Amino acid sequence: MRHILRFTYSLCLLMSIMVVTINAQQTYSLDLVGKVNFPSLRTNCFGTDSTGGSDVWGYTAPDGSEYAIMGDTNGIAFIKVPEMQVVNVIEGPTLGDCYYHRDIQTYGNYAYAVSEMTGVDARGLMIMDLSTLPDSVRLAGWYDPSANIRSHNMHIDTTSGFAYVISQNARGDRFIDLQDPENPVDVTTLITPSSSTLTHDVYADNDTIYVSEGTNSAFSIWDVTDKMNPVFITRITSPTNGYGHNAWPTPDKNNLMTTEETNNRTVKLWDISDLSNVTLADEYLAPNNNAHNAHIWGDLAVISHYAYGVSVVDVSDPLNITEVASYDTYPRNDAAGFWGCWRAYLTSNTDYVYTSNFNGDLTVLKLNRNVTGIEDESSNIIETAVLDQNYPNPFNPSTTIRYELAKAADIRLSIYNSIGQELRVLAQQRQAAGLYSVVWDGRDTTGNALLFLSAGYFRREGI
Fold first, then answer.
1. CA triple 441-444-446, angle to 5 deg
2. Cα gap 367→380, rounded to integer Å
3. What is the bridge-based pairing of β-strands 75-81 and 66-71?
4. Neighbour count for residue 131 (Cβ, 10 Å)
5. Domains of the chain: residue spans and CATH
6. CA–CA separation, 315 vs 15, rounded Å?
7. Is 272 within 8 Å of 280 (Cβ atoms)?
8. Contacts of 63 by beta carbon, 8 Å cutoff, 6+ apart
9. Per-state percent for the chain, helix, strand, coil, to nearest 5
10. Per-residue pLDDT tens for 88-138?
11. Which residues are CB-neighbours of 180 under 8 A, at least 6 positions away?
């Protein structure tokens, strides 16, 4: 059951109902869609066979077309999926880094990239206009403030329109305003705790940033609502003393997954529901004993696990991380070290998994979700739950969303942006049968958004 809600902020809201039983089981598989091999070079980067492939990200065009965006030796490549058609390669800097580190993010109809390279094209933040797809991608320009032409990592908070970019000396995070997408503006820089700490990665959402502190073996969380006065919230220090590499929270912000990119150091899931008392919930490590990056979407995390390839783990039970699927993008070996899968990205609506390899391979997979043990209750959906059209419609700035439950249910009402990041949870609780309404004020949300209402009806047989 779906209703389209329209209002002046150009948000499109969709509602859906799911009916499940206690005996339902979901299994997953990863199937190959296609591969593209980009140029790579044999280098002496810690003994790897060849390098050139780096970050991969995704973009969904307004017409629903999907694109993988990947860094290679020459620049940033744009590939239409599932056709595996290379639409464009926008050239970037190519000197000074044998790993060809590039990091990519999207915001609206733009892609932004940073790199560790030097040379004539090393001019800072790369800005690419995606509105010209499917025909091409336009290089809109560069943003190159003094002494900040190189960077290892970035992340864009799509709820606030700020990019958080690791500074050139890796001692902090630059806050960059993207209000004018082709003319970014530096606002301030957050300096990490000590001059010896290398700030490696940053994740940003809803004016909160999660900083991976590299050699500090730690991950810090900051409230950056006031950009000129960031507020330190807490710091999580790894008990295994690995390199603080990557951090990604679950959509409800109750848990944080971290990686340490150090042999025999586990991927960790932390309970951060009480930020004054953070605890370790569970750990995971694939057989090659070295993980790179984790990317969470819903109850799943996709992990680029170097020579093991990509692994998909279920984090719905934070105390029991469970691997549910994997695909070996680097069958040559499963040795610990810097081989194989660099990054994995899960699309929000189509369940494509984009993976990039050091050796230049882009591998596109399809994550299949197979549900078993569910009775066919489609004929009873209207009777068990009813969604009414919101009112007013269109609206500015608020609207009332009404739904009716015929029996008790565990409900969750959430707003996601167009790239799958959760923006708001309007309601999450067990509710008795009855008529309910929620008022939502959309003034602080821009761009495209989806509203999901899920209601799970549990038979609890045998309990």
1. 110
2. 29
3. antiparallel
4. 12
5. 25-371 (2.130.10.10), 378-456 (2.60.40)
6. 24
7. no
8. none
9. 0, 50, 50
10. 999 999 999 989 999 999 999 999 999 999 887 788 999 999 999 999 999
11. none
